[in-house]
Design goal:
6-stranded mixed barrel
């Protein structure tokens, strides 16, 4: 009960002291405001980016391995050495599928290009076209919203059919069903047999709803005869992913006719490579943000400590009177600690008020979000700064001798 009374009384006295020195209190909180704005905006950006990248990575599938000519992340030396590698061919992809049939649920060769698109009077340039097989529906986790996906006989027979993305269907076929209609890619005509469900963007840059999927045989014969093929392999057991990678590497070396002492002339990529590189980037951003935040809070804390020492000196007689009428050392300590904490919390609240519109504006460019846990962390940091910076002045006040304090001018 006594502690509750001390806290209530300490808060009232501290609030009155802050109100009596408004300008000084405002200037004292500036360092805290800058620190809280920095930590809040940085935290909002990192939280949003983490969520956004996880959503993007989920489109790839953790159980899918990608065999390609180039590794996704290379230094300059590795990039230069891999430029002269032989292209991966459709024939090699089919041979690989036979070699890994036990450890793979599905194997889909994939190749890409960009080309112009026409339908009646509507046209679009630089449309992303993907040549693949019926297995891509499984390796990419595609769901068809209208019609159906391509079949094995259509791929083997090089049928001029296609499956289009959600956004392309909405743009070209506003008031009609796209199924059975013919679109023109370059100079070749293709029948639309299906429309994929909306999938979103990968890493905020590439829309997976603006793709057109063709049988890979038709792609090679009409779009690009020298296409570089990527092989997507969906493994049967995610817990044995590393074993599957080694089996895949051995099979690919055999398919590529590599000698035992020759280096791999292909790369095996997977989702975790993106995750590792993103975590490195996120760690760098966090380190820079924490440095700026720590510097701002350190400067702000020193300012608050100095102001609190000044406040203790100015109120020496008040401290003496309170001690003379029975106030304990703990009571005086709590009073000045509360004053420092309240100043910091005011700075934290102002910082959150400034960070909110900044985060809203940032959200139009990056997926930044300000969550309740982040707000709690910002206020917790403010309170902790108040405790650290206010302890020494409060301790000095609590140690004063009441007789000496009453004699002070």
């Amino acid at each position: 009960m006594r502690i509750a009374t001390e806290l209530t009384e300490g808060f009232r006295i501290s609030w009155n002291a802050i109100g009596a020195n408004k300008v000084r209190s405002v200037l004292t909180t500036l360092g805290i405001v800058v620190g809280i704005v920095t930590v809040t905006v940085m935290g909002a950006a990192i939280t949003g980016l983490n969520r956004y990248f996880k959503e993007s990575f989920s489109l790839m599938g953790a159980d899918v391995i990608y065999v390609e000519r180039f590794a996704w992340f290379n230094n300059e030396e590795e990039w230069q050495s891999s430029r002269n590698r032989r292209k991966i061919t459709l024939h090699q992809a089919r041979l690989l599928e036979r070699h890994v049939s036990d450890s793979a649920k599905a194997v889909a060769p994939v190749c890409f290009s960009r080309i112009s698109l026409r339908y009646n009077r509507k046209s679009a340039g630089n449309v992303f076209v993907l040549g693949t097989t019926e297995k891509f529906e499984e390796t990419a986790g595609i769901t068809v919203a209208q019609g159906r996906y391509m079949t094995g006989p259509e791929v083997n027979g090089s049928r001029p059919v296609c499956v289009i993305g959600h956004d392309i269907a909405s743009r070209l076929f506003e008031h009609e069903s796209p199924i059975g209609k013919k679109i023109t890619l370059g100079e070749a005509s293709f029948e639309v047999i299906g429309v994929n469900e909306k999938r979103g963007k990968f890493m905020g840059m590439f829309s997976m709803d603006e793709e057109i999927h063709l049988p890979i045989t038709q792609f090679i014969s009409t779009i690009s005869s020298r296409a570089d093929v990527r092989i997507d392999v969906k493994v049967t057991d995610l817990s044995k992913l590393e074993d599957a990678k080694e089996e895949l590497r051995g099979a690919m070396r055999k398919v590529r006719s590599l000698k035992p002492d020759a280096r791999d002339d292909f790369a095996i990529n997977q989702q975790d490579m993106f995750v590792r590189n993103f975590n490195k980037l996120g760690g760098t951003i966090a380190a820079i943000g924490l440095f700026i935040t720590g510097l701002s809070l350190f400067v702000g804390g020193i300012g608050i400590m100095n102001i609190m020492f000044v406040s203790v000196t100015e109120r020496t007689k008040e401290i003496g009177i309170r001690k003379a009428i029975g106030a304990r050392r703990r009571t005086i300590l709590v009073q000045f600690l509360i004053e420092a904490i309240v100043i910091c919390l005011i700075g934290g609240a102002v910082g959150l008020g400034i960070a909110w519109p900044i985060t809203m504006a940032l959200g139009k460019v990056l997926p930044a979000t300000m969550s309740l846990p982040l707000v709690a962390v910002a206020l917790g940091v403010s309170m902790f700064t108040g405790v650290i910076s206010g302890f020494m002045p409060a301790y000095r006040a609590s140690k004063m001798n009441p007789v000496d304090a009453l004699r002070a001018e």
